Inverse folding.
């Protein structure tokens, strides 16, 4: 039998085999409950870059990819047709919507599905925000734990409206948090930020990052020690698709002017933004630079948002990038040499390099074999080594892994698999000063959970995993 050709096909292939071995373990039913992740209907528009907000036509629909897809013609990263422009549309290269949209049984789950979490350390414990997906909308939730990962109180619902809110990014400060996200609704695709207090309660009203005349998506939030900083993909008639940068203080007041870090980009995945105390680093994979040759690039961003000239990290058709500040340079990990249309199965690997303005401080190193689709990397620096979490999705399953990298990016011999006997996706990782923690979406026999696991500096699991959100089968 031919191997599945998409990530979803692989997940379903795995689920069918597990159900065959243990009929009571209805993993197939759990997997098919993910059908709501794609092809949601919202108002359509004629094209993306326009001088006025897009007009809505209630008679037609626009394709939406809540986790991010690629424009069919150009391959550019997108979350909806709005990003691709006239005559093009956003598709899921993994076949998520096509495989699952017709398979979901109505009422198979009791609650919204927790997906794409973002984890932060607040100095005392762990904090996480996530998108809770229902039939035709997704809202954002927030939860805190103590240092041992035990949840404090009930999750807080941050948003409440009939739209799709995805790709959250959480930054912690001494006084609270900033949470930014992408909203897909009838009036387009926009980037927002909401300040939260230490308990997760909203402070003030949400602030729109993207302009009224453009689109904003895939925003990232960081804390630099005295201000919050944000970057996002911004589409407008003036710059096409740019990476935009802005800052606010803890009171929610704008700090300085918003700037473009890069213009006329053709991104191949999500970018990352990280603080280095007196500035920032940003990195992304671009298909359109240098005569259409794909590459992953890095820029050093000054305290006021002034971007250096891009430094080429690696050539090729690469994807999403993850960054962390390692004291003298940034550690960068990216989805390397994507092959999403392979006849057998989509494949990639993870690669690492140490990057600084104008130079590669640590040479490129391949981290994983190219035997599956390896994606969703999250990296953190402990002061002596890196921690790396990722999802590996192949015809033998989908799992979340953790491994340590030394200062030169060399991985440990044996990665730690965090999802034994289940399906794991969407990891997010942080460092507390003494240990790493990873939070992920966990698809198992009981249903779909949001789980948190801890790993010490020696790479060993600490205690039991903690369930932060639980969607049980009926």
């Amino acid at each position: 039998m031919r191997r599945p050709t998409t990530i979803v096909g692989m997940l379903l292939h795995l689920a069918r085999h597990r159900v065959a071995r243990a009929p009571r373990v209805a993993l197939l039913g759990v997997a098919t409950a993910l059908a709501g992740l794609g092809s949601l209907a919202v108002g359509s528009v004629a094209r993306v870059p326009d001088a006025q907000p897009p007009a809505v036509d209630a008679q037609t629909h626009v394709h939406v990819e809540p986790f991010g897809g690629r424009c069919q013609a150009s391959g550019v990263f997108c979350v909806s047709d709005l990003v691709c422009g006239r005559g093009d549309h956003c598709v899921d290269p993994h076949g998520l919507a096509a495989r699952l949209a017709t398979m979901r049984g109505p009422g198979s789950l009791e609650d919204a599905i927790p997906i794409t979490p973002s984890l932060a350390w607040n100095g005392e414990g762990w904090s996480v925000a996530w998108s809770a997906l229902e039939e035709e909308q997704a809202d954002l939730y927030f939860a805190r734990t103590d240092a041992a990962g035990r949840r404090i109180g009930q999750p807080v619902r941050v948003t409440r409206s009939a739209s799709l809110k995805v790709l959250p990014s959480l930054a912690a400060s001494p006084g609270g948090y900033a949470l930014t996200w992408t909203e897909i609704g009838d009036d387009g695709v926009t980037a927002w930020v909401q300040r939260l207090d230490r308990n997760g309660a909203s402070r003030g009203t949400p602030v729109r990052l993207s302009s009224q005349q453009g689109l904003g998506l895939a925003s990232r939030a960081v804390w630099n020690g005295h201000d919050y900083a944000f970057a996002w993909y911004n589409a407008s008639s003036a710059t096409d698709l740019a990476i935009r940068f802005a800052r606010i203080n803890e009171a929610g007041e704008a700090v300085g002017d918003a700037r473009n870090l890069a213009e006329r980009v053709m991104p191949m995945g999500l970018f990352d933004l990280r603080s280095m105390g007196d500035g920032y680093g940003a990195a992304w994979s671009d298909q359109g630079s240098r005569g259409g040759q794909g590459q992953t690039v890095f820029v050093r961003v000054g305290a006021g948002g002034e971007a250096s000239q891009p430094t080429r990290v690696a050539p090729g058709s690469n994807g999403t990038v993850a960054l962390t500040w390692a004291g003298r340079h940034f550690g960068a990990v990216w989805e390397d040499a994507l092959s999403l249309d392979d006849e057998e199965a989509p494949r990639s690997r993870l690669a690492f390099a140490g990057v600084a303005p104008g130079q590669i401080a640590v040479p490129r190193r391949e981290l994983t074999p190219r035997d599956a689709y390896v994606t969703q990397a999250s990296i953190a620096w402990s002061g002596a080594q890196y921690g790396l979490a990722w999802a590996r999705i192949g015809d033998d399953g989908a799992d979340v892994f953790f491994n340590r990298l030394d200062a030169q990016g060399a991985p440990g011999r044996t990665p730690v698999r965090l999802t034994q006997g289940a399906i794991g996706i969407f990891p997010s990782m942080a460092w507390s000063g003494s240990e790493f923690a990873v939070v992920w979406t966990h698809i198992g026999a009981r249903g779909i959970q949001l789980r948190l696991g801890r790993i010490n500096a020696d790479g060993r699991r600490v205690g039991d995993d903690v369930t932060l959100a639980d969607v049980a089968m009926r």
Summary: Residues 7-21 form the longest helix (15 residues).
